[in-house]
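> forwarded from #structure-qc
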């Protein structure tokens, strides 16, 4: 996959592969909340969880995949790209707890959004955001996404392993269309 982006501030992005399991284990070691998009999105990840997740998110398979945000050999976060309908893709992002609020997602999300429009030819990219997640709402606006709709009780809280026993909350859908005004990367 032709994905090797320089993001600025010493950061770069590249597709994550199964061999990156140790990086994912290290990155999620301090996570206590639902964090990543996978069969089991709660951290921290074991080596087995990381290998399973990365094998399911293989860029070579042509479906969903993860993009790592790195500084040197340290994984600071990840962006998931999940095709849904033809011409539409969900983008999700996660930053390791000790690196949050430092502008990392503000550099990565606009760059990867532009890359997906340009290189993958995806005309519509969308975010699913908990209405209570103020930092993500602000990031969506700064990255050039526009509010589209509210989906009642759509997103799982992951407070229980059993989906039937879990809590669900509303999600806000924000979209970015190809040809839309460029995103800003101001922190």
């Amino acid at each position: 996959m032709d994905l090797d982006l320089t993001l600025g501030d010493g950061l770069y992005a590249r597709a994550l592969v199964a061999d990156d399991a140790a990086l994912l284990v290290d990155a999620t070691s301090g996570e206590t909340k639902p964090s990543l998009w996978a069969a089991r999105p709660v951290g921290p990840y074991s080596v087995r969880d990381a290998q399973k997740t990365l094998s399911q998110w293989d860029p070579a398979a042509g479906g969903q995949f993860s993009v790592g945000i790195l500084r040197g050999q340290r994984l600071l976060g990840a962006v998931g790209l999940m095709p849904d309908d033809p011409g539409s893709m969900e983008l999700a992002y996660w930053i390791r707890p000790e690196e949050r609020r430092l502008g990392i997602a503000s550099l990565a999300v606009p760059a990867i959004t532009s890359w997906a429009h340009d290189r993958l030819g995806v005309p519509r990219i969308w975010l699913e955001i908990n209405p209570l997640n103020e930092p993500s709402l602000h990031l969506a606006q700064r990255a050039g996404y526009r509010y589209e709709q509210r989906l009642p009780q759509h997103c799982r809280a992951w407070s229980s392993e059993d989906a039937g026993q879990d809590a669900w909350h509303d999600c806000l859908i924000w979209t970015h269309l190809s040809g839309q005004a460029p995103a800003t990367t101001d922190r």
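QC bot note: The chain has four helices and eight strands. The first helix runs from residue 21 to 28.
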